[in-house]
Design a protein that fits this description.
Strands 7-8-9-12-11-10-16-15-14 form a 9-stranded mixed beta sheet. The protein has a 9-stranded mixed beta sheet with strand order 19-18-20-21-17-22-23-24-25, sandwiched between helices. Helix 9 crosses helix 11, helix 15 crosses helix 23 and helix 18 runs parallel beside helix 19. It is α+β, with helices and mostly antiparallel strands. The chain folds into 3 domains: about 130 residues, no CATH class; about 210 residues, Beta-Lactamase (2-Layer Sandwich); about 270 residues, Rossmann fold (3-Layer(aba) Sandwich), CATH 3.40.50. It contains 24 helices and 25 strands. The longest helix is centred in the last third of the chain and has 21 residues. About 35% of the residues lie in helices and about 25% in strands.
Length: about 650
C-alpha cells in the first residue's frame, strides 16, 4: 500500500469514527464550484461560521484534503460568508497538512481537522517528518501569523439582498481613529495605517448586525418582493416583511433595510448618508475592485465590493428612472436620482461595455436640497458683500458665468443665484442632467420652465442643447440659464446675448480656472467670436478646499470683463487674501464697469453702491439668524422695502 492510499484510509476512518472525542452537530454540505469550496449551511445550527464552529471548520478541512481552492464560501439564510486571502490560505494549508501528516500521526491529523492552529504549534515542536510536513504544506508560516480563529477566519459578508460584499476585518496594521453612526442604522469606522498614515473607510451595514432569524426573514421578504408576490410600490417592502415577521420592532427595522436595498442603492446609500462623504466610486471590474469614497476631500478605499448582479441592478434602475438607454449601443449615462431619505439627491455617471470593462458608476452627493445665497454666506462659500454684488448683478439682468473645476460647487452656486431673480421673472432652465432646483423654485410660485437636452438626441428624451436654446428664445422674454456651457449652444447663446434676444439675466456654468481660462475656452475651444464673448459681464470662480471642518467649497474670485484696444481682459473685484475673499477696492474707488452698468437711467454709481450695501445687510441678517432655506428666503425677500428694481419689479 502506498502512502497516498494509507493516508486516504486513515482520513476515512477519522471521518467515520464516532469515538474521536470531537462530535459535532454541523450539517454543512460541501461542494466545489470552480476555484471555490461552497458549504450549504442552510440546515446547520452553526450557520457555517468557521471562526466559531469546530464542526464546520472540520468539514471544510476534510474537503480541502482533496484539492486546493482560492476561496471558501458558507451559505445560509440569504447570507454568504466569504473566506479568502489569509483565511483561505489557513484552511487550504490545514487540508494539505491533514492529508500528509495522517500517515505519521493520526491523532495529530485528527486535531488539525478542527483546530489546525493548535496542531501546527504541536507539529513545529516535533522532530521530522511531522515538523517538516508543517513547513512544506505552508501551515507553519500561515499559523504563526495569526492569534486565533475569531480574527484569522473573520469572513467578508455578502447578502443576497444587498448584492454587495463587505469585509468584516479591518486592514492589518491599522488603528481605529473614528467611529461614525450613519442615518441608515449602519456604522462607519475610519482606520489609519500605522506605517503610511493612509486612511481606510470601513462600513458595517445594518444588515450584518441582524440575528440569524432576522437575516432569514429579510431574505424571505426579499424573495417575495422579487417574485412579484407582493405589490404596492413604495409600501411593498413593508408588506413583504410583515408577511414573514410578526414583531413590530423587527418589522420596522427590516422594512427600512429592505427598502434601502430594493428601492434605494443599498450600501451606496449607506456611504452617501455620511455627511463627510461627497462621492462614491464603483470601478470596474466591480467584484475585484473596492468601492472608494471621497471622504473629507481624501479618496479612501472601503471594505465594500459590489457584485456583478448589484451593478446590473443599478444599471436597470437608471434605465427605468431616466428613460434613457444604457447599453453597448449607448454606453454612458448621466442622471440625477434620489438615494434615500438619509442620503438625499445624487448625481450619477455610469459607463458600461464596450467603453469600459463592465459596468461602473460615480455617485456624487447633490446636497440635501436647494441652497440659497444666504445659505452660501452662512456656510462660508462667500462673504455677504460679495454675495450682494452677485445678487444685484442677477437682479439687474447681468450676464455671468460660474466657473470652476469638477466638484468646485458651480451648479450649487448657480442654483442659489436663481433665487435672486425677481419673483416675476420667467426663467428657462436648460440641462442635460436635471440638477438645478427647478421644482423648489416652482413650489414658491416662480415661473420656471425646464428643458431637458441630450448629447445624442436618439438617447431617450431631450433635444440638442442648441435647439433647446433656440426654443427657449421663442418661449418669451426672460432669464436664460444653462446648466453647463460646453458645446455648440455656446455660439447660439452668445449671439442671443449680443443682439439682446434675452431681456433678463443670462447665467451658466463652465469649466475653467478664472476669467482668462474661461475666455480661452469659449473663444478657442467653443469657437465663439471675441466680440460676442465680450457681452459677458462677470465670472465668479469657485474652488474646493480643505477647511477646518473638512472638505468645503468657496468663491475664489469675482471678475468683471473689460473691453480694451487690445481685446477682452478681466479685472478682479473680489479675490482671496489668504483664506478670505475680500474686495480689491475697484468698486469703492468708482472704477467698476460692472457696477456702473447695473445703474438705471435715473441712478448714479453711488446709488448702486447703496443698493449693494442694502443687500449685504440683508444677507448678514438672514445668515446670522439661520433663515437660509428657500421658503424662508423667499418670504424675507417679499417683505423687503427696497428701491424699485429694473424690469420685473
Amino acid at each position: 500500500m502506498n502512502l497516498g492510499s494509507a493516508a486516504s484510509e486513515i482520513l476515512d476512518r477519522l471521518r467515520d469514527d464516532d469515538c474521536t472525542g470531537r462530535p459535532h452537530d454541523c450539517q454543512c454540505q460541501p461542494s466545489f464550484q470552480d476555484d471555490r469550496l461552497v458549504l450549504d449551511a442552510t440546515d446547520c445550527p452553526e450557520n457555517g461560521r468557521l471562526g466559531e464552529s469546530d464542526g464546520c471548520r472540520s468539514v471544510v478541512v476534510d474537503a480541502l484534503t482533496r484539492r486546493d481552492v482560492e476561496m471558501v464560501v458558507t451559505r445560509s439564510d440569504g447570507l454568504d460568508r466569504i473566506y479568502d486571502g489569509r483565511a483561505a490560505a489557513l484552511l487550504v494549508a490545514a487540508g494539505r497538512f491533514v492529508e500528509q501528516v495522517a500517515v505519521h500521526d493520526a491523532e495529530l491529523a485528527n486535531t488539525a481537522r478542527s483546530d489546525p492552529i493548535d496542531a501546527c504549534r504541536s507539529a513545529t515542536a516535533r522532530t521530522p517528518p511531522v515538523s517538516r510536513v508543517a513547513a512544506e504544506t505552508g501551515l507553519a508560516s500561515v499559523a504563526e501569523s495569526v492569534e486565533g480563529y475569531e480574527t484569522a477566519l473573520r469572513p467578508a459578508l455578502r447578502s443576497t439582498v444587498a448584492r454587495a460584499r463587505v469585509a468584516a476585518r479591518p486592514p492589518a496594521n491599522t488603528a481605529l481613529v473614528e467611529t461614525r453612526s450613519l442615518g441608515t442604522e449602519s456604522t462607519a469606522r475610519i482606520y489609519r495605517d500605522r506605517s503610511t498614515g493612509t486612511r481606510t473607510y470601513q462600513l458595517e451595514p445594518a444588515i450584518t448586525e441582524l440575528s440569524p432569524a432576522g437575516i432569514r426573514q429579510l431574505a424571505d421578504a426579499y424573495d417575495r418582493l422579487a417574485s412579484g408576490a407582493i405589490e404596492g410600490g413604495d409600501r411593498a417592502p413593508g408588506r413583504a416583511v410583515r408577511a414573514v415577521c410578526d414583531s413590530d420592532d423587527e418589522i420596522a427595522l427590516l422594512s427600512r433595510i429592505l427598502a434601502k436595498h430594493t428601492r434605494e442603492f443599498g450600501v451606496v446609500t449607506d456611504l452617501l448618508s455620511d455627511d463627510s462623504v461627497s462621492d462614491v466610486f464603483v470601478t470596474t471590474p466591480v467584484e475585484s475592485t473596492p468601492v472608494r469614497v471621497l471622504y473629507d476631500g481624501d479618496r479612501l478605499a472601503t471594505n465594500v465590493r459590489l457584485t456583478e448582479e448589484g451593478a446590473a441592478a443599478f444599471a436597470s434602475r437608471f434605465r427605468r428612472s431616466s428613460g434613457r438607454a444604457f447599453s453597448r449601443a449607448s454606453p454612458t449615462l448621466a442622471a440625477t436620482t434620489a438615494a434615500g431619505e438619509s442620503a438625499g439627491s445624487v448625481r450619477v455617471a455610469g459607463v458600461t461595455d464596450p467603453v469600459s470593462d463592465g459596468t461602473g458608476f460615480v455617485f456624487r452627493d447633490h446636497g440635501d436640497g436647494a441652497l440659497t445665497l444666504p445659505a452660501l454666506v452662512e456656510n462660508g462659500t462667500l462673504p455677504a458683500d460679495a454675495a450682494a454684488l452677485l445678487s444685484v448683478a442677477v437682479r439687474r439682468s447681468g450676464a455671468g458665468l460660474i466657473a470652476g473645476t469638477r466638484g468646485a460647487g458651480k451648479t450649487t452656486t448657480l442654483g442659489a443665484l436663481l433665487w435672486e431673480l425677481p419673483a416675476g421673472t420667467r426663467t428657462v432652465v436648460i440641462e442635460d442632467t436635471p440638477e438645478l432646483p427647478v421644482e423648489q423654485l416652482q413650489e414658491t410660485g416662480r415661473d420656471v420652465q425646464a428643458l431637458e437636452t441630450a448629447v445624442d438626441v436618439e438617447d431617450g428624451p431631450g433635444i440638442s442643447p442648441a435647439e433647446a436654446l433656440r426654443t427657449a428664445l421663442r418661449l418669451g422674454e426672460g432669464a436664460l440659464v444653462l446648466g453647463e456651457v460646453r458645446g455648440e449652444e455656446a455660439r447660439v447663446l452668445y449671439e442671443a446675448m449680443r443682439v439682446g434676444a434675452s431681456g433678463s439675466a443670462v447665467l451658466g456654468t463652465i469649466h475653467g480656472d478664472g476669467g482668462e481660462s474661461v475666455r480661452e475656452r469659449v473663444i478657442s475651444d467653443l469657437d465663439v467670436p471675441e466680440s460676442s464673448f465680450a457681452v459677458t459681464e462677470f465670472v465668479a470662480t469657485l474652488e474646493p478646499y480643505q477647511g477646518p471642518d473638512g472638505r468645503a467649497r468657496r468663491v475664489r474670485s469675482i471678475e468683471e470683463l473689460l473691453v480694451t484696444d487690445e481685446g477682452v481682459t478681466f479685472a478682479p473685484l473680489y479675490e482671496l487674501d489668504g483664506s478670505d475673499l475680500v474686495t480689491t477696492g475697484r468698486i469703492g474707488r468708482g472704477e467698476s464697469r460692472l457696477v456702473d452698468s447695473l445703474a438705471r437711467s435715473d441712478e448714479s454709481y453711488a446709488d448702486v453702491r447703496g443698493l449693494l450695501g442694502h443687500w449685504q445687510r440683508v444677507f448678514e441678517r438672514l445668515a446670522d439668524s439661520g433663515r437660509t432655506r428657500p421658503q424662508a428666503v423667499a418670504d424675507a425677500y417679499a417683505r423687503q422695502s427696497r428701491p424699485r428694481e429694473r424690469g420685473n419689479a
